[in-house]
Fold this sequence. Notes:
The chain is mainly α. It has one domain (37-211): Cytochrome Bc1 Complex, Chain C (Up-down Bundle). It has helices at 2-13, 15-23, 38-59, 67-76, 81-108, 117-140, 144-158, 164-172, 179-211. α6 crosses α7. The chain is globular and about 55 Å long. The structure holds protoporphyrin IX containing FE. Residues 36, 38-40, 42-43, 46, 99, 102-103, 106, 111-112, 116, 119-120, 123-124, 126-127, 130, 204, 208, 213-214 line the site of protoporphyrin IX containing FE.
Amino acid sequence: MIDRLINWIDERYQLREFVKPYLDKPVSPHEMSFKFCWGGITFLLIIVQVITGVFLAYYYRPNVAEAYQSIRFITDEVYLGWLVRGIHHHSSSLLVITVFVHMLIVFFRGAYKNPRELNWVSGALLFFLVMAFAFSGYLLIWDQLGYWATRVGTGIAGEVPLVGEYILLFIQGGYGVKQPTLSRFYATHILVLPAILGLILALHFAMVRRRGISEPL
Length: 217
Ligand code: HEM
């Protein structure tokens, strides 16, 4: 039944032909090692973040009067809300760790060298995106910790010579961390960053597939 459905769709869109070169790759024995799992684990955590993030967005209210209360509501009242929020919270920390470990392994194996320089460049962009996710998500709780962490972060950005003030105003949406800041952080966290991340991830994976995983040292 499922096979027939897939064949029916494939006859019309010929997707198999398109994805075959990407999915149909033999895995060589040296790739079946734990050190090659970190990119995949990071990707798995990103999927977890997307799924739990959508559920949180159903209840979260991105305005300064209600944001904190809506987080309390998710944690205390919504069915399994505490679990979904907890997974989103802890996965974000794990994500920062796994992406860093992945980067270190790639670095120490020298896997960034020719012909994989652009894998490294796209990876570096992914690293900054993961950090931007963590930074923008922190404010959304609208508690003291998130508020002051944001003040420190935007304050540092504001110290950049010449253009610091413009950067600060752009990030905060004005002077001070207020409603415009929360709106901007929310839009960035759920719209801008996921869109850019999706695009760069696709590039990163396409490059990994094209060139294959680097040989053992
Ligand atoms: C969202 C974050 C990221 C995801 C989901 C991701 C995913 C992956 C996956 C699945 C692979 C293939 C298997 C492996 O080597 O683990 C890979 C390879 C690679 N990644 Fe990433 N990556 C991310 C971030 C980064 C970062 C931060 C860097 C470096 C700055 C990087 C550089 C590379 C390079 C150079 C390869 C090729 C490794 C080789 O051929 O041995 N990636 N990535």
